[in-house]
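Margin note: ligand = pyridoxal-5'-phosphate.
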Amino acid sequence: MRYISTRGQAPALNFEDVLLAGLASDGGLYVPENLPRFTVEEIASWAGLPYHELAFRVMRPFVAGSIEDADFKRILEETYGVFAHKAVAPLTQLGANEWVLELFQGPTLAFKDFALQLLGRLLDHVLTKRGERVVIMGATSGDTGSAAIEGCKACDNVDIFIMHPHNRVSEVQRRQMTTILGDNIHNIAIEGNFDDCQEMVKASFADQGFLKGTRLVAVNSINWARIMAQIVYYFHAALQLGAPHRSVAFSVPTGNFGDIFAGYLARNMGLPINQLIVATNRNDILHRFMSGNRYDKDTLHASLSPSMDIMVSSNFERLLFDLHGRNGAAVSALMDAFKATGKLAVEEDRWTEARRLFDSLAVDDEGTCATIAAVHAETGYLLDPHTAIGVKAARECRRSLALPMVVLGTAHPVKFPEAVEKAGIDAVPQLPAHLADLFQREERCTVLANDLKTVQDFVSAHGNRGKPL
Ligand SMILES: Cc1ncc(COP(=O)(O)O)c(C=O)c1O
Ligand SMILES: N[C@@H](CCOP(=O)(O)O)C(=O)O
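Resulting structure:
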């Protein structure tokens, strides 16, 4: 499998090189040159497989030629073996034909574990084979950071730098990152917002002089391997609900557009998905695009669903690439114009094409709390604020009551006690046993100004097991 850039100018890479990358050298994102497509018979034959075996079948075409089958099988079994639930991603029924896919059974209690526990193991495998050390720089609004640190903490060949917006992640999220101590783990609180952190990661890929020759790797969803691993659970959920002989709809709490883009790819690989709902909080640039063809930058607001406090949505570019007939020059021109003006719209027929599959809704904090409270009263089930936004959007935007609607349960409510309390629910859940002493653990974190050079100087001063590069 070869991977090409959405901007058409960077060299094509194989899976191993795309895993060890981030943004392409032309500023674009890597996508598979040709997407595998499975037949109805093939998909049907996967019903009932354990999660890691399904994962092998769905992802094998993407890694073939770079990772040996036997190694990949072993890595997948190890990755999903650490999840708390034996189904890995259990489905819980909320209402009539309405389900939550619990993606928070991994070690850091959010959907990021599905890709990042795998990414850490794949990096370890490839870097050990090559005898190469790398630096990772990642931006997090709360969940990617802890999952990436957990996934990479045992990798001898990695120094990982995670930037989060200072005071804009929940306390549980912050402690999940800052209490993992190791001389190759570096938490940075940036005096800015998530977009500032993400922009610094992207700018660092464009100019890597500060790394003095050490390779830079991404753990955010700009890294193709993140998206690849997230495709699997769409198959896992849909197969349990009658696919491929029946269509299924998904409502996806959305920020960087990575998770829902994985659903879009699952559909293009043959899974019958009839609707994808983009569920955002009040940071609603994607809802404004889906509902009115306006992708215009706005002020980034802090909300009760902090992981989705994102404005510039990385993976939207991957959708634009497909909407423009995979024409890199057209995407490059659009992205240049967006950088200059902060605004983007596409031709009417391309937007109509997107609307055939996607619907959207923006839900404010009040609507989020009301949904947590209503679902708790109806069923006793406690939603986290991100999943609550997905449920609200599913209920408002659903096209067919006859088809199953699956809401991606992207995080465990224990990570967001503030939203649970604001929803009027007293019984805030307990941290699971492996995190029970989280509030007693020592924290290590450096606060830095919202300034690229300051951050890059910090990375070059600590990028070799805490010592200078
Ligand atoms: C809990 C949670 N829900 C939803 C999202 C949005 O996912 P995506 O950025 O892939 O759109 C995120 C972070 O990205 C998250 O951490
Ligand atoms: N919500 C994310 C933001 C980063 O998104 P990513 O999927 O591109 O890593 C987070 O929790 O950090």
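The radius of gyration is 21 Å.
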